[in-house]
Write a structure and sequence with these properties.
Structural class: alpha/beta
Shape: globular
Family: Belongs to the universal stress protein A family.
CATH class: Alpha Beta
Number of helices: 7
CATH architecture: 3-Layer(aba) Sandwich
Domain UspA: 1-139
Oligomer: single chain
Distance between the termini: 20 Å
Strand content: 15-25%
Number of domains: 1
Protein name: Universal stress protein
Number of strands: 5
Mean pLDDT: 85
CATH topology: Rossmann fold
Pfam family, one: Usp
Largest sheet: 5 strands, parallel
CATH superfamily: HUPs
Order of helices and strands: EHEHHHEHEHHE
Radius of gyration: 14 Å
Helix content: 40-55%
Low-confidence stretches: 114-121
């Protein structure tokens, strides 16, 4: 089992299921740690700036997207941290994963952007191809 897990999340049902599986992968909850990442691309960032009052409101709304994932980790008494990554999600997640030492990366098979999944092959596919650690894709 794993101790240091990277969990890519975007607030979708698939990312919530990924969080449930991440908790099951943990060998020892006392020493385990999950890093939750939410990647914000340029168009999402632009939308956030145009539709919110300030940076604080943007930050609050982004954290709200991770609420379901965080609730699962807290209910399981898992230590965690959350980070917002900037850039194209697949590339940003791979870069973050490869710069840090994770035992496993867990990601949902689909996220909130279904068009990107159909047209580009999906973030999870890019992550699986580029990450240097084991990747679990959750349906």
């Amino acid at each position: 089992m794993f101790q240091n897990i990277l969990l890519a999340a975007d607030g979708s049902d698939h990312s919530v299921r990924a969080a449930e599986h991440a908790v099951r992968l943990i060998a020892d909850r006392e020493n385990a740690f999950v890093t939750v990442v939410y990647a914000v691309d340029g168009s999402t960032s632009k939308y956030d700036v145009l539709h919110n009052k300030d940076k604080i409101e943007i930050s609050i709304k982004r954290k709200e997207k991770l609420k379901g994932v965080i609730e699962i980790l807290e209910a399981a008494n898992v230590k965690y941290d959350s980070k917002i990554l900037h850039g194209e999600p697949g590339e940003a997640i791979v870069e973050f994963a490869n710069k840090n030492r994770f035992d496993c990366l867990v990601i949902g098979s689909r996220g909130l952007n279904r068009l990107q999944t159909m047209v580009l092959g999906g973030v999870s596919h890019k992550v699986a191809k580029g990450a240097q650690c084991p990747v679990m894709i959750v349906k």
